[in-house]
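Practice problem. Given the sequence and the SMILES for zinc ion, write out the predicted structure.
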Amino acid sequence: MGHEWNHPVSGKSFVNAVHVRAGCLYSKVRASRGRTADGAVAAGLQCEVCPVHRETLAHVIQQCPGSALARNERHNAVAKLLVQKLIASGYTVEAEPAIKTDHGVRRPDVVAYKPGKRGYRRRDDRRGSTGRALGRS
Ligand SMILES: [Zn+2]
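Answer key:
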């Protein structure tokens, strides 16, 4: 696949890694490929946690409540690592601050800034002297 592997891995791990990379991990829908000639196959392809959905890789990874805990733990681990690295790089970091906007309260995962440096600007700051929003033409 054009990738170089820096670490030797077992055959099983290699195969699993290729499946992840190629997006072809096992799911009921994927396993049914080639057997969808008639309408009768839809039965049995439902997710075991939420039967109203078909068990596709996208559903299992992104939506299914059965994988929500692992998904959230992964998200939190990445956010924690990001915060650590930002702080180590001299940023002041706010985790999940509540920001009131015209469209309701938004809660980004991380806001990082260096005191005294201009970077992110609020929407109001982007308006020109005429009050017209800049950035779109
Ligand atoms: Zn599900």
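Check your answer against the key. Confidence is low (pLDDT under 50) at residues 122-137.
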